[in-house]
Amino acid sequence: MTSQPSPQGAGLGESPAAWTVRRAEELIASLAGVLSTRIVADRAGGIEEIHVLTSAEMAPKQTVRNVESALMAQLGLKVDHRKISVAQTAEVKPLAALEREAVAEAASRRMVVFGDLVIESPRPRRVQIRVLLKHNGAELEGVEEGVDEARSRVQLAARAAVKALERDLEEAGVVLEGVRVVDAFDRRIVLAAVHGVGGRSSQLLVGTCEVRESPEQAAVLAVLDATNRWYLQQR
Fold first, then answer.
1. Above 90 in pLDDT, residue 156?
2. DSSP string, 46-76
3. 216 FRET partner, CA 20 to 30 A, in 176, 177, 192, 202?
């Protein structure tokens, strides 16, 4: 007796029925909105159940129609719609991606981020700089006033940032060592040095930020760049 040839594309040693089921699963998985699929077949290779997991934007009835049409058009299989069950999920992501997102979200909650910078002139030749920082849903504000001069304004902005940070520290503190605008690599960069004081130890912290919006804003961001990693250790 001569054996029947396997369907084109069937794997070595794979029966025609097994190939049909595998091909049907691959076809269904390629349909719009389908995240995964599994086919339950009888011993003869006939399809008994088709289980499909889809995203929420695809209506179950539409998915059933799509599966029926695709199987008929591509493989010549006529399947009763009652054999097709559809489950939906809002979103499916790899575990590694979910872990990375969870870590990033937790870190962002702990970190202090820049909120706003307001520069006002309360009287002639004087300037008041108000810095607003945000941490874990709370707002931290620091205000400094001084002479209205370019170098002084950068110092005031950095000091206001330090003062805002101090509001959220109970058993530690930060002290501004200095801040300076430097020219390097064809750019203007603000360099900030801060002492982080915790317990009996004091640590010099250095941060930088390229001047983009203004030197004052860069000074605030340089202070945050210097202190954020140390700050996390104090929480």
1. yes
2. -EEEEEEEEETTS-HHHHHHHHHHHIIIII-
3. 202
Please name the residue that has the structure tokens 């396997």: 6
Judged by DSSP in three states, 164 sits in helix
Contact in structure between 179 and 219 (CB atoms under 8 Å) = yes
Query: Domain 103-233 class?
Result: alpha beta
The upper half-sphere exposure of residue 190, i.e. CA atoms within 13 Å in the direction of its Cβ, equals 27
Tokens of 49: 């159940």
Q: Is the pLDDT of residue 8 over 70?
A: no
pLDDT band at 104 (very low <50, low <70, confident <90, very high): low
pTM: 0.52
CA distances to 67, 117, 168, 177, 221 from 165, rounded to whole Å, are 58, 14, 6, 15, 12
Q: Which CATH superfamily is domain 16-92 in?
A: ANL, C-terminal domain (3.30.300.30)
**Burial status of residue 154 (CB atoms within 10 A of its CB: 0-12, 13-18, 19 or more):** buried
Only one residue has tokens 């794979």, namely 14
Answer for the pair 117, 219: CB distance below 8 angstroms, yes or no.
no
C-alpha to C-alpha distance for 78 and 24, rounded to whole angstroms: 12
- Residue with tokens 């804003």, as numbered in its chain: 217
